User: Fold this.
Amino acid sequence: MRAPGSYLKATNCHLLKKPWYRILLVFLPISLLAATDPVQTAKVFEFQTSSAPTITISNLSGQVTVRSWDKDSVRAACTPSSPHVEVDAEPMPASGRADRVQFLTHILDPSVTGEAAKADYMLSVPVGASLEIRNRQGHVQVEGLTGETWVQSVGGSITVVDPSGHLDVHSIGGDVEIDRPAGHVEASSINGSLKFVDPTSTKIRGTTTSGRIIYEGDFAPGGEYVLSAYSGDLDILCPASASFEIHAQSVKGRLDNGVDVIRNQHDATPRGATSLFGTHNTGKARLDLRSYSGTIRLRTMR
Amino acid sequence: MASSSNDKPELSRSACRAFDLELSAFLEGERRLEVERHAQDCEFCSVVLADLEAIREASGALPLEDPPARMWLNLRATLAAEGLVKEPVAWFERFPGFAWFEWAAPVGALALLAITAGLLVRTPGRLENLAPADTTVALLAPVEFDVSPELAKTVTGLEENYAAREAKLDPAIKATYRKSLDSLNDSIKECRATVEAKPSDTLAQEYLMAAYAEKAEVLQSALEDVR
Assistant:
């Protein structure tokens, strides 16, 4: 085993013997550390709220996760990515139980973009809370709320799990996934895909331009499902017991039907479109499927 | 509520917050000197104000679209199901003795139809006189379809406004907007070609209109994001 300092002696380096070089060797790492941004810690906010408050989050970029809990309060851990980003929260009214809590991300230096302009949010909110989230870039995840949820993103993806209130989600470039929705759903994207898993909603409306639409699950009796893709494919996978009246039409795309459908005699399809207008089982729900050039596929689960 | 490292951003934010609160009243035409003053001092808020004014001007030119007929039917059905509206009841339905009145109108109409048909059969020349030859041609001619000039003008205006400010956007956001606008431009081009080739293709017409509306929404969103 080598004795302390023996390495210096062994190297026989003349530079290390000079005092200015030793000073440089000590201060260089310190100055480098000082130049880099310090690690940002989470800023935690806690507010007592009503059982159904409205929570608003306006963020530029970052991950936003909102989960429900069985308390009448809001807890938020917000982590800015750099000192150029600051997160502000405002309850309304300012004293007592808040009916509305607003979270806002500020960029202190307008020239800052990309990673340095991010802020991540992790919120726990009452089950009955309503949400309004605008997050330009980054994933948004919302779980288990019964209030209304509105999410808008430019490039981020959006996942909503077990929502039972009205849902309004839009991303321009990101994918949207909605698992087990029970309330009315409006979802749209331009370049992203839409996925609906096991819905019990009676009204779903989804549109995308170049993305796909995937619907996996049954249709509620009396429900109305309007799904429209432009160039992306539209895949419907439902149980054989599903009961619906279908009106599928495509301008230039294909219709690939693997479900027993009794065609209706009076087809109201616009002239020029490929179409399928008929009934599966007793026709309790109504499906309106459209595409311009994408393929519409209809399959039953095995 | 939030802690801040120095006072300047805090002061600036409170002024921006006051600006936000007064902004809608200002845009509705009320006199708000503090809004104008703050917009001169704060670059960010001046851009927000300029964008909102541009959107307000552009949206003023948007055509008023009637909702689809199905919406009214659904609304009526929902209100009826909730008992908020009731189907109108004819006066004779309230009196059982006059129930036969329900059949009076259809029976009368059928009788009138029979008399008219009889007269036409007896004088065949009248049938030709009722339908001029050029009506048939007019009915068979394809109906020209295009988006309204106002909507196209609005979208062009928004597009020009965005092109002038696009450089200010975060590169990742700009790329997302560019990609979506390219997709929508492609779909507008394709739909337009289809509609020109098959003017009766109403589904292609719907996609064309939807693409224009989505493009307007994307451009508005992009203009809001320009800092």
Q: What stands out?
A: Confidence is low (pLDDT under 50) at residues 1-10, 87-96, 120-142 of chain B. The longest helix of chain B spans residues 171-197.
